[in-house]
Amino acid sequence: MEDDFISLYPDDKFSFSCTSRLSCFNECCRDLNQYLTPYDILRLKNGLEISSSIFLKTYTSHHTGPETGLPVVTLKTDSASGSICPFVTPSGCRVYRDRPSSCRTYPLARLVSRNRESRKLTEYYMIIKEKHCLGFNDGKEQTVSRWIIEQDIEPYNRMNDMLMEVISLKNQRIPGKLDIKSGYLFRMALYDLDGFRSYLLNDKEAHNTLNESDIKALKWDDTALLVFAFSWVKQNLFCNNIL
Ligand code: SF4
Ligand code: SF4
Fold this sequence. Notes:
The protein is of the alpha+beta class. It has helices at 38-47, 52-59, 101-105, 144-150, 154-173, 180-191, 193-202, 204-208, 212-220, 222-239; strands spanning 4-8, 13-16, 60-64, 71-75, 88-89, 92-93, 108-114, 121-129, 140-143.
């Protein structure tokens, strides 16, 4: 694959249009190695109206990073059929409204760095030109920031930045491999949200750390639960190690 990467900032322009009339329609949904973030899973499982544990079992593969002990979750594909996404149909993506962040952002990819002193984030985008993608021919001119709005990428960026913060804290406090129990709790809290909710509400010790307003929000609001999960992981796995 001959790819060409070009860096872009929010006001930079690029030309691109993706339509079902192009002969490359759905080509980008095969030969896939699709990583999923916790917020990708939240949106997909809610869009499909299934629990996180059923989603993980049915649609994902996961392994543990050998150096970090952190979970790596990817969409399950069948290599015999060309590693096609389980959500692609002849008429396009069947989870389009809740498609993962990298699918939304394509043909851009977001890169973020954080200043150590000020903690300020700087983001920029790479444009990914792949041979099979014809969206650059006669594409509509737009800015990166317009693309972010049109593709509704901002909520994903916000949650993915929280994930990055957790991972960077883990790397500071525990530079090597996480132990098995911490790895399990990390995966449950961030990737299996319904399992985490049930753990918080049913485990006596965990339940005692919650106040009434936490409990109310966490029972019904998955986004609030995930935001809570990011701080819970930071606090319990990488700050006090109380578990
Ligand atoms: S989730 Fe949708 S857009 Fe993303 S690879 Fe699968 S079918 Fe394509
Ligand atoms: S234009 Fe690019 S993104 Fe759109 S369907 Fe074709 S390959 Fe996929």
